[in-house]
Input
Amino acid sequence: MNKKGYSLVEVLITLFIVSLILGAAYFTYISIFKGMKEESESVELQMEKIVGLELLRLDLEHTGYGVGKPKTTGDYRILETKAMTPRDGLLIRSTLNNTNNKTIGWVLCNNSGGNDPIRDETSAPNDNYVFIDNEGYIVATVNDGLCPNDDLLIGFPFDSASTGCDNTCTEILYYLSNTNLPSHCNKKTYNLLRKVNNSGGGNPLLSCVADFKFRVDLDTDLDNVVDLKNQQLTNSISPTDLRYQLKKIHVYILIQEGGFNPDYEFKNFNSDSDGKYIPIDGVKLYLPNTPDFKHYRWKAIKMSVKPMSIIK
Output
């Protein structure tokens, strides 16, 4: 019987072919894994963005909600610029905090003092109310949930830990911070934090934010027509004028979408002496000042909200 084995050349050829197949499979696996990782990061950021932006929209919509006019002191500022680093923060005042059910809603009084309200549209039990008359002035603050007198009054529940409006309205501060920045974010981006009253450093609303700015539309002659559009919010305008003139709030955010991708190059930007930026409505949103910023995807977001406060 003629027994013949494999030659050395045949073995080497077989090993070469197998190595090619394994190499192709490996690179295919790496490519798929990389794509899945990028897609996972992108989906995670998209979900975070949807939730975060909706909460921001609700807070902007309720700017000045329930904030009455004091009868004996100066007016309360319902919206304010807060000087911070690297960008100014946006401070909102409202009796309503959208993450606290006890501050959501209102009650109506039209009966003798000390009685329960005739209509209760609150979301959760709360005995702390600031009552306001039909001219928008604060009549009384109670902690027993009862109508203070027999006038036609509307009451707004507030958090007992409130730090604004003589402790009757919530202060919500939006600002940028690089504390606890997720690892997939460009190292020169920030978390957009939402701080309620004195709640520590605040809670992350959005991550991987490169820039955050805000503007306002004002009706200075009170004819219900905006005559100053997209203005920087300055604290030089009086609280009373701001209450009457504020028509719309615009927020601009430049955010990273997905993680680092060495094969991708972002090109849609302009440059000036301050750096690389994306323009929107004349507002410059600056990209991170890092050599690798081009290997991330960036999106400029504009949110325009009309405050719904019923008190002027």
In short: The two ends are 108 Å apart (CA to CA). The mean pLDDT is 89. Residues 101-158 form one domain.
